[in-house]
User: What shape does this take?
Amino acid sequence: MTAVLFTCAGQRVDIVSAFGRAGATTVATDLDPLAPAVWHADVRAETPRVDDPAYVDAVARIVGEHDVRLIVPLTDLDHLALLHAADRFDALVLLPPEEVVRRVGDKYLAHVFFEERGIPSPPSWLPEEVPADARYPLLVKVREGFGSRHIYRAHDRAELDFFLRYTTVDSFVQTCCRGEEFSIDVFCDLDGRCLNAIPRTMIQSKGGESIKGMTIADRDLIEFGAHVAETLGLVGPGTIQCFREDDGRHEVTDVNPRFGGAFPLPLAAGSRYPELALQLARGERPEPRLGEFRAGVVMTRFFSHLCLTSGEGGSLEPFAEELPEPIASEPGEA
Assistant: This one.
């Protein structure tokens, strides 16, 4: 069985569990010992903060102790740290090259890259370059960030000036898209070939994360997602966000080089992305299967939980919950 290390596992129980069902031995780490995903892995381990010099040492130790063959980061926080230290791990780090990570990590630089290569992206400017005839509303967006944080909508020049003064982060300005929004979950091999691209609708999202959506067999979106992924040089998973405008043109707004928040939806549609990742870790070269998935699969997400209790030596361990005995008679009982 291939051992897979998930870094910054957080709440991504869905991803850790899916790799376990695909046959992997799962090892999960997080700064927080109560992170739910580490409790659903075969092995759990704590690490320092990703900006701590000891972080890479801790990851290297875990890789060696558990014979890890694949490292899958589940947030954007440690991408560069893992890439810089990749030669210290006897394992595949499932990330594209550093220049790709840096390019998509800065949303303004990503916009410039797309424009240079003829991939439509909403008109965007640095704060001091916004033209007088820009079409409002405009968005003030953080250049490097996630979770839809630090995004403000300006309806005129006065509001734009206000939000540019108000924001506390390095930002750029982008035209609001007016069309329908889609996300495309892609997976690429080590040569940057797109193995599959699964589009989904954005029925509802919260904090930048999809809550409800549906897979769709839209050939234009499938081909567009594959083209964007291969032009960028993605390796492993990626999520491409775009809008379809009234003229049928697709405009890219964001690309994240990791499994997206809606991971359960393409998984249920037959993506087999965990299996593809394990194949790459074993040195195999799977063939592209663009368009091979089930359309019309609908996802609606909800909160769940895990309860822990004290174990030996003050440790924590999961326990099976039972309904407590009633402390008073039910109404109508003697």
DSSP finds nine helices and 18 strands in the chain.
